[in-house]
């Protein structure tokens, strides 16, 4: 059951979903990273300070719509670095959102 849940089956899946877990690498602002320290995203989560004053998160997570919504909820306080397909997807959605505000 735990494996089934970890695959994200209770999340909202889309054509973008991937059943295999991914290694998420994202840079968060210090203030946003404080929440990640209190409530880890995954059991293998690592937080590392970066030279520019931010915090790099590395964690193994299911790639699904819920992850994308969660990341986008941090707005300008997060930049997805890896994997590239997730980075591209988040960037595209942000561009569409910005266009809607013009």
Shape: globular
Judged by helices, strands and strand pairing, the structural class is alpha+beta
Number of helices: 4
List low-confidence stretches. Answer: none
The proportion of strand residues reads 25-35%
Give the overall average pLDDT. 86
Series of secondary-structure elements, N-terminal to C-terminal = HEHEEHEH
Radius of gyration: 14 Å
Strand arrangement, major sheet = 2-3-1-4
Proportion of helical residues: 25-40%
- Biggest beta sheet attributes: 4 strands, antiparallel
Q: Report the span from N to C terminus.
A: 46 Å
Let me know the number of strands. 4
Structure description:
This protein is α+β, with helices and mostly antiparallel strands. It has four helices and four strands. A hairpin with a 5-residue loop joins strand 2 and strand 3. The relative contact order is 0.21.
Topology:
Blueprint: H1 2-6, E1 18-28, H2 30-38, E2 46-49, E3 55-63, H3 65-72, E4 78-82, H4 84-100
Antiparallel strand pairs: 1-3, 1-4, 2-3
Quick summary:
The protein has 102 residues and is an alpha+beta fold. It has helices spanning 2-6, 30-38, 65-72, 84-100; strands spanning 18-28, 46-49, 55-63, 78-82.
List keywords for this structure.
single chain; about 100 residues; alpha+beta; 4 helices; about 40% helix
